[in-house]
Amino acid sequence: MLKKINLNSLIPLAQRTCFRNYSQEPAAVETVHDDDFRVLNLRKTKGTQQQLSRRPKPPDVPPPRYKQMAVDQDWGAVWPGPKTFHPASVPLPVRQGWVPLNKTVPGKFANAELMKIPNFLHLTPPVIAKQCEALKQFCTPFPKGLETEEQQEKHFPVQFISSDYVHGLPTIRNPLSRIVTIKLKLSQLKLDEHARDKFLRLIGERYNEETDEITIVTDRCPLKQQNFDYAMYLLTALYHESRTVEEWESSKQEGDMEYYNWHNNQSKVTSTEVLNWGLPGDSKVEPPQEYISCVENLMNEGENEYNINKYKESVVKMLGLA
């Protein structure tokens, strides 16, 4: 006996409901945006590449500082101390660098030459005046009686000269900074005739006859203070040695003298007798100083045309033959 069976009766209710849902209500498809999920595209084209590439945002660069400065800007606040050159802070059209002929020298921006060299932008005249004003409270007044150079030379006859150098090297010491020079007027030493002659022979070419100045230069020691002490020692030793009279010096005769001295020679006696010949005994005439100087120059410097002419003029003038 055959019966007709409905297939729907064999499927459970839950499954029938599921089929009914799928069949009656289609599922909603969620759309995926490009911002949330990037699709892998193995075949890139120029359009998709430009669409997906991110354009970098340029940074906000402020204008140079010197364009925002006021005309009466306090430069000491902008550049308070020594530092590397900064083009945005200096309101000057500075240029530095070597270029070929007929080319413009590079400007201050992106210029390594300006950054390598030391600058003194922190030592402008207003800043120096401000610093000096702040240091006045620590200074003492200038000593009285030393207003002129003559007064300074009288009280401080020795002149000390040295040099300091600023250079871009790993060491702060410059070999030339150790050199010390001492200058002094020979008339300031108060030497007698014997000491003066001996001093000049000891010092040699360090004496300038035109300016009457002694110059001693020392550079043997590695430090400046050592060279200064050595120069002062040399000056002291020369002074005391020139004033020393040895035993053999007192027994020197006219032929043993190193130079011709008119007062110790027979020429003085002879010229005095010639001038006083036929005059009374009470009145005596001494040879003029011009004649004495001409005789000494002729004997010490040698015979030349100038000395002979000067000697001739002094003799004619002394004897009244002109």
Automatic annotation (TrEMBL):
It holds the Pfam family MRP-S28. One of its GO terms (molecular function) is structural constituent of ribosome. InterPro entries: Ribosomal_mS35_mit, Ribosomal_mS35_mt. One of its GO terms (cellular component) is mitochondrial small ribosomal subunit. Residues 44-64 are annotated as: Disordered. Residues 157-245 form the Small ribosomal subunit protein mS35 mitochondrial conserved domain. GO terms for biological process: mitochondrial translation. This is Small ribosomal subunit protein mS35 mitochondrial conserved domain-containing protein. It comes from Chironomus riparius.
